Amino acid sequence: MEATVRHTGAFLMETPPTIFTPEQFDAEARQMAETTERFVREQVMPYVKRLEHGEPAQMREILIDSAMLGLLGIDVPTEFGGLGLPKTTSALITEKTALQPSFAVSHAVHTSVGSLPILLFGNAEQQHHYLPKLTSGEYIGAYALTEPEAGSDALAGRTRAERRGDEYYITGNKIWITNARFADLFVTFAKVDGERFTAFLVERGPGLLVEREEHKLGLHGSSTCRVVFDAVAVSAGRRLGQEGEGAHVALYTLNLGRFKIGAATLGIAKEAWQLGRNYAAERKQFGRPIIEYPLIWRKLVWGATLIYAVESATYRLADELEQAFQANGADRQQTWRAAAAQYAAECALLKVAATEALHHIVDDALQIHGGYGYSEEYPIAALYRDTRVNRIYEGTNEINRLNLVDRLMHALQLGFWTPLSTRHTATDTVEATLQTLRSLTGSALHALSRFTEPPQELVEPLADALIALYLLDSAHARARQTNNPLHQAMVALYHEQLRRQVAGWSADLAELTGTPAIGVEPTPIAPLFEAVRSQIPLA
After folding, report:
1. What is the CATH number of the domain that holds 390?
2. Residue 211 is among the residues annotated as catalytic for this protein
3. Do the strands 224-235 and 208-213 form a parallel or antiparallel pair, or are they unpaired?
4. How far apart are the C-alpha atoms of 269 and 138, rounded to whole Å?
5. Cβ pair 399, 347 in contact under 8 A
6. What's the Rg (C-alpha) of the chain?
7. Which residue in 30, 89, 23 sits closest to 477, CA to CA?
8. Catalytic-role residue among 162, 394, 453, 457
9. Are residues 425 and 389 located together in one domain of the fold?
10. Fewest CB atoms within 10 Å of the CB: 204, 228, 325, 456?
11. Distance separating alpha carbons of residues 38 and 65, to the nearest angstrom
12. Domain limits at 105?
């Protein structure tokens, strides 16, 4: 297999010769995914009603049960009791844990932001003490970053840590803390002497008060509470990283968390799509199953196409992350940190793309149910509520659009990628549209570098064009590898829907790029819907 050059922003220059695709999973990875799905359907879903009606501590027992399958250590090396899975297989398993969203968020917080900071920044003593406990379920992890006055601007937190001898005393308030009711270990962020933003490993104990459960719109089965720190004593040996290094601990971990959200929302999207498809095949109106009506089956065709595009991007990025984590380096932990930072732009991109595709798919699935979709008797209603938060946590999608553009501009300054030297405007083929999007976004990113703070009204269309570029590039590369007629039909449909937006993006960015808007002549889309419909099992 031809080697692929891997670095952030590479998609702005060319389509890679190969990418990792789901078709490449071996039998062992598929078996692990099947086992995980069976666990969620048989050992988690039957408890949902209990979890949603005042028994959030039941989630702790479920998490402990999942540890028996290794699900609490999928990303942790075997030397610390984990499975040490490749990022591709980890993403596949994350898809399956997401089939029950309350379990998914509890599991994700524990395995991602609740454990990975120790892997990336913990010293040897901290790693050997905490990681085996976290992977076995002896300890359940939580992540205490957000504060009442510090949400998107996390570094504006007011929680303080005062050092006295060999101990720090932490005082402050944290909100929206997942797993708080039953967590044993809180990765906590505070400013030492009110200045140096620092991470700490805080165990449940004196001075740590967990307040009542929040009354959330969805995810009723997960625990979300405010946590109060009242001069909580933490030994200096439980400081995570150096004083003032907390921003790196938080942001590097959140990068990986955003990637995991992409994989999780992909799994939920598949479940929502299946619920919509099954209902449409069973429900009859005017003497026919409603799936036979174009206004219904076109929703399903477009949903399947979105899933294909997001799935292609997810596993492409998973493999890129894996290669970065496996890169040779004298210091393994430094290599891991560099890997967590390297693809910050793509992780932000995937989080936005996947969660917004999920919103469209779950909304269509509920619409297909009609009035029954608004009833709590049908699972699509809870899924609709549970998935809304995905566009908010781990950085709102607005913040992640800003992060995407900012990180790619930074990569440009470092020379990781260079804008195309010639302007492209054609959109008659997939390859032509990819080059046109590269030309448009590359020149826009270069032009933005003259701003101290890029105007957000320009960042939004630019971010949307970048997301479209990455998804189309990934979907196209996958279809080229598989030579699957269904994949090719989906790429054609996705391409036509996307190219119709190119004119708008180029018009919005014309003042920035100094070039006129790109003209696009749409082609009939109905045959493209029909081509996909003829190859997927709808009836």
Report:
1. 1.20.140.10
2. no
3. antiparallel
4. 32
5. no
6. 23
7. 23
8. 394
9. no
10. 456
11. 13
12. 1-395
Q: What is the pLDDT of residues 427-475, one digit of tens each?
A: 999 999 999 999 999 999 999 988 988 999 999 999 999 999 999 999 9
The answer to whether 130 touches 238, Cβ cutoff 8 Å, is no
Q: Note if the pTM is more than 0.70.
A: yes
What is the per-residue burial (b if ≥16 Cβ within 10 Å, else e) of 163-193?
eeeeebbbbbbbbbbbbbbbbbbbbbbbbbe
Q: Nearest Cα to 190, choosing from 208, 167, 174, 206?
A: 174
AA identity, residue 489: A
Identify whether 72 is part of a domain: yes
Say what the pLDDT of residue 2 is. Answer: 38
* CB atoms near residue 207 (< 10 Å): 15
User: Which runs of consecutive H residues, i.e. helices, occur in 137-286?
Assistant: 246-282
In a domain, 414, yes or no: no
Residue 199 near residue 168 (C-beta atoms within 8 A): no
Q: Give the pair of three-digit tokens for residue 3.
A: 């080697």
Answer yes or no: is 404 within a domain: no
Domain boundary among 346, 379, 395: 395
Residue 381 to residue 294: CA distance in whole angstroms? 23
How far apart, in whole angstroms, are the C-alpha atoms of residue 129 and residue 137?
13
What would the DSSP string read from start to end of 32-83?
Answer: HHHHHHHHIIIIIGGGHHHHHTT-TTHHHHHHHHHHTTTTT-TTS-GGGTS-
Structurally, the chain folds into a number of domains equal to: 2
Q: What are the residue ranges in the chain where pLDDT is below 50?
A: 1-5
- Please give the angle made by the CA atoms of 432, 437 and 443, to the nearest 5 degrees: 125
Would residue 412 count as lying in a domain? no
Q: In angstroms, rounded to a whole number, what is the distance separating the alpha carbons of residues 318 and 316? A: 5
